Sequence to fold (137 residues):
Amino acid sequence: MTGGLIYAKLATSKISRCAAMIQLSPSALQEVLRLGQKQADADLRFRLSTARKGCLDRSYVMQFDKMTQASDRVIPLADDLELVVNAADLPYLEGLAIDYSEDMMGGGFRFYNPNTIQVCSCGNSFSVGRPKADFAG
Fold:
């Protein structure tokens, strides 16, 4: 743990001297673990991806998933939790920091992405400049 964040290093054989980092704050990790415990299947992994939807180009998608694909990167986050990210999403998620906080309006995840050039005022979608690298190969 560095600077209060849990680092998930995504390194692949297709990336030479390059790795994407995704950071989860302790509160984000705790919330993901809490949500995972509510799932009926204990063998689920935490999948983080992006989808083409929303007011701008992309939105974050977080879900629990049992399936993995050949292009997925699987990274241990905690003793009983793994993060799954598809290689196609890595350019959009490189350097992403995820936090979780609660206020009077409820709780929610906050995404801090150095790749974004614009974020929708609703906070649900974002656009990025040209992805830095093609992690998919």
Remarks:
- The first strand starts at residue 6 and ends at 10.
- DSSP finds two helices and ten strands in the chain.
- Residues 8 and 37 are 20 Å apart (CA to CA).
- The helical segments are 26-37, 90-93.
